[in-house]
Hints:
The complex is a heterotrimer of chains A (334), B (331) and C (527). By secondary structure, chain A is mainly alpha-helical. Chain A has a two-stranded antiparallel ribbon. Chain A has helices spanning 11-25, 29-43, 50-75, 83-98, 105-129, 134-152, 163-170, 184-202, 204-214, 216-221, 226-252, 262-272, 284-303, 310-333; strands at residues 172-176, 180-183. Chain A has one domain (32-328): ABC transporter involved in vitamin B12 uptake, BtuC. Chain B is mainly α and 331 residues long. Chain B is built from 16 helices and 2 strands. Chain B has helices spanning 10-17, 23-40, 45-48, 51-75, 83-98, 105-128, 134-152, 162-169, 177-195, 197-207, 209-214, 219-245, 252-255, 258-268, 280-299, 304-323; strands at residues 171-172, 175-176. In chain B, helix 2 (23-40) packs parallel to helix 15 and helix 10 crosses helix 12. Chain C has 527 residues and is α/β, with parallel strands linked by helices. Chain C has 4 domains: 1-93 and 174-242, 3-Layer(aba) Sandwich (Rossmann fold), CATH 3.40.50; 100-173, no CATH class; 264-344 and 433-500, P-loop containing nucleotide triphosphate hydrolases (Rossmann fold, 3-Layer(aba) Sandwich), CATH 3.40.50.300; 356-430, no CATH class. Chain C is built from 18 helices and 20 strands. Chain C has helices at 56-63, 86-92, 109-113, 127-140, 158-171, 188-203, 215-221, 244-252, 307-315, 337-342, 352-356, 363-374, 385-400, 416-429, 446-461, 473-479, 501-508, 518-526, and strands at residues 18-27, 30-40, 44-49, 71-76, 79-81, 94-97, 176-180, 207-211, 224-229, 232-238, 272-280, 287-292, 296-301, 322-327, 330-332, 345-348, 434-438, 465-469, 482-487, 490-496. Chain C has a 6-stranded mixed β-sheet, sandwiched between helices. A 6-stranded mixed β-sheet of chain C has the order 16-17-18-13-19-20, with helices on both faces. A 4-stranded antiparallel β-sheet of chain C has the order 2-1-4-5, covered by helices on one side. In chain C, strand 11 and strand 12 (287-292) form a beta hairpin. At the A-B interface, helix 5, helix 6, helix 10 and helix 14 of A face helix 7, helix 14 and helix 16 of B.
Amino acid sequence: xxxxxxxxxxxxxxxxxxxxxxxxxxxxxxxxxxxxxxxxxxxxxxxxxxxxxxxxxxxxxxxxxxxxxxxxxxxxxxxxxxxxxxxxxxxxxxxxxxxxxxxxxxxxxxxxxxxxxxxxxxxxxxxxxxxxxxxxxxxxxxxxxxxxxxxxxxxxxxxxxxxxxxxxxxxxxxxxxxxxxxxxxxxxxxxxxxxxxxxxxxxxxxxxxxxxxxxxxxxxxxxxxxxxxxxxxxxxxxxxxxxxxxxxxxxxxxxxxxxxxxxxxxxxxxxxxxxxxxxxxxxxxxxxxxxxxxxxxxxxxxxxxxxxxxxxxxxxxxxxxxxxxxxxxxxxxx
Amino acid sequence: xxxxxxxxxxxxxxxxxxxxxxxxxxxxxxxxxxxxxxxxxxxxxxxxxxxxxxxxxxxxxxxxxxxxxxxxxxxxxxxxxxxxxxxxxxxxxxxxxxxxxxxxxxxxxxxxxxxxxxxxxxxxxxxxxxxxxxxxxxxxxxxxxxxxxxxxxxxxxxxxxxxxxxxxxxxxxxxxxxxxxxxxxxxxxxxxxxxxxxxxxxxxxxxxxxxxxxxxxxxxxxxxxxxxxxxxxxxxxxxxxxxxxxxxxxxxxxxxxxxxxxxxxxxxxxxxxxxxxxxxxxxxxxxxxxxxxxxxxxxxxxxxxxxxxxxxxxxxxxxxxxxxxxxxxxx
Amino acid sequence: xxxxxxxxxxxxxxxxxxxxxxxxxxxxxxxxxxxxxxxxxxxxxxxxxxxxxxxxxxxxxxxxxxxxxxxxxxxxxxxxxxxxxxxxxxxxxxxxxxxxxxxxxxxxxxxxxxxxxxxxxxxxxxxxxxxxxxxxxxxxxxxxxxxxxxxxxxxxxxxxxxxxxxxxxxxxxxxxxxxxxxxxxxxxxxxxxxxxxxxxxxxxxxxxxxxxxxxxxxxxxxxxxxxxxxxxxxxxxxxxxxxxxxxxxxxxxxxxxxxxxxxxxxxxxxxxxxxxxxxxxxxxxxxxxxxxxxxxxxxxxxxxxxxxxxxxxxxxxxxxxxxxxxxxxxxxxxxxxxxxxxxxxxxxxxxxxxxxxxxxxxxxxxxxxxxxxxxxxxxxxxxxxxxxxxxxxxxxxxxxxxxxxxxxxxxxxxxxxxxxxxxxxxxxxxxxxxxxxxxxxxxxxxxxxxxxxxxxxxxxxxxxxxxxxxxxxxxxxxxxxxxxxxxxxxxxxxxxxxxxxxxxxxxxxxxxxxxxxxxxxxxxxxx
Lengths: 334, 331, 527
């Protein structure tokens, strides 16, 4: 994606030099993912087969979608800590609106997206106009949304999911040429990825998000309508959360704690994917592979016998480590 | 706009120095509204049974103690998002070590206070020495604590001996011990902030770190001390909570919303999020407001989940009432 | 009048309290101080004057321990000292009061004075002693009736805050007090109060040093005046023995030996593209100006005279609240930067790092931001797609002579000169035909400066109208076809091209009010 001038002088050594420079440009998340996944597939040979890989991707897809949305908020300089509770709301709410009736699937999904739009807009408006730091605004929103979710089901979530709805998160397309079975959630991830890739890397919007996260004052003085961009970013994050929620509900079922901690995982995944926590840098494909890397890491830790809850500790260390690394490096430069 | 210095007698000047934070007028206002709501929509119990009022205070104790600590770090220009898990860890470790045996009480208390100091120290060091933003540092710490906590425990564990329950339930005459403890913590916090060099330096660091540094204040040490203090108050809250619940569990901290509410009550009590200004009495006012809201909701029989919906909105709006005045863009 | 012999008629045997010898200081691309030696005596008020960039601030900061000199030594009461931190200087008795005070607005006067040195044993704070000691200090400064130790600093006026800063200095038992533009924001009455205070400090035996632009005040307060120019010492004189005209001449008289592109011809100037009538807002009053196509209109004035505010008003960042703005003869409302950009106005800000550049973004994205922000939000990057942008960026870069191995390099890694070129091309990309420059060559080395000047003149050759704000007199005089001078938020004069530096300075410092004319300046030259 970048042009390098390869010096015209003598061949061999310069070619290798140029190649090495290109290799150095590859974001570290890809080789790291490869290494970890290879380790995982070594320990559990199922992952060496195509169905095994697909099952991994099927599981990781929802998280990847959440990470994309969170990444955009991070790039704009903020935090969205409400996406976990949006997932909870979506799973519980879908169950309540589906009521075991397959005909209601479409309207249920549309309703969820409608709710997501309201939440995202509200987050954006609070941060832009009420000047409440997004950390607190989205924490408060998370509380509200989770309360709404539990209120809706009276504290006792029941799984009234229909098979057609669940298909999105857990189903496979059969008889796909070349590969056989193809997970539905992976297809949805691909669709989301294509749309967000366009929006973030090929449309003016993405560049404006990077601008406000990098230097909001300079962005303002260059004509960027900061509020508009910021509100949209929170909107996108909420919509990604809704999408992820539908997939998670289909794959994993229901519970009061379905969305617990997902925002932190998304932040960690984004950081692994090279997103800067203070804004100004991020990428959709890197974020996706950041999520994959984290999932692979957790699988690895699982295979090595480390119990599930240690995930959180690992995530915490990753986040602190990443920020400390950047901060110490900048200190050194001064 | 300068004041003329008229000669004042000692007792006069003492009383003058106690500002009543405007928040307390709010407290009275909300209290009145609550009473009216209770009479009209609720069962009107509050007037019939004044003990319910003491419940307001008791509910406020847990939040109040940790909110004092949070006020300290916010005055210093920092924040602590790990308090909920410090509280949980405390509750779990306390009931685990005590194991229902009064002889273990001192060991348990000493152990958890030590844990709190370590957590606070870690937070402080990560922020000052590694240069990590305090949101991220304490958020990361929260995650680490959560991981350790849930890895080791899944539900209620251990138990607290009867004797320890006096902390949560005991009274001296008509006054619950817990309220005394809360007031003590608030007074100690107030003394530290206004009558010690550390307090003066903390305000300096929060107001303008560079100016403080140029004046010779050891900014790192001051911040670390504030974080340790905050963690210790979280431990005290944990001790109080476990004495009331009689047993500790990993979710008590998060369920009680101590992280979000300690920040919110601090801000609505008049302490600026950016630091350098505010105090613990205002925070106490904020805590009382939340306590009254909680009690009123209870009396009205509000569904606990609906309560969270309203709380989430109230918290954001309360903070917004302060931040809306700022002219700069916020992310 | 030279600086070599110590001048101290007050007491010929007195030793200097503070002395600097052979101080040299370099910053990237600029020699800020060149072999400066000065002596400051106790009980004396010594003013250091010179225009922007003369090196006065740098010298003060070195003496106060904020900078370390590259060469030379500092002597305090005859003993060599070196400061690696301002706190060290303070402890040794050298205090400095900056133009932006170092006070905490939410803390009381007493708390501010004693920050870091509070009275009390074993960590406890003795509040009574704190307030009492503060009261004592205020009484010494005879300000105890005006200021109470328990007042919050934010409730004090600028003059009162300054007194608090001075109290801080005495609290530290300073022997030397340095003040940077102490009278900048004071009313006449407050200046009198400050003057009295300074006299008191003088009586205490302190060496008082201050930097100022306000020449008539300098004469009222100072015993001695030192003039600096271009990082060097020009001379020192006793205030009683010299005229202000001579001081002005010492400050600015120099050959215009730097290269500037030739000024425009009157015939080349076209229609009025921008006209402001009675423009005003919270910072500006009675702004009336016209900008012609193809000309460079320079705006001169001292710091704080409202130049940047004028630029911000034109660009909609801090819009005008009254008056009218016409672009190409049509009345327009510019209430926000996007309005201005749509009207093809470009704003090259004073602080490119804080306001002009996106440090972590590649050069390419920096340059294209203005174009992109006007395009549909979800439209493909640049209607011509990514290939279109690949043509636009290199051609713009060529226009401004921006050389980079790749346009994907992050802007933060470029040199100051190149960064400024990136900002310039940003506005060329948005096809601005009115450019506002605020300090276009600040912090840029001499080589690149000429390039930027050529570019600015080049813009006018293409019919672009330029409004250029600069505090470097040479630049204003070398580049401007007309010169506007601002003072206190107003446009006070318009001077023609080829005016002299003295003429500009006299107007900018308000000397016009004191009835000094260019006659006096000529007399000064001959002295």
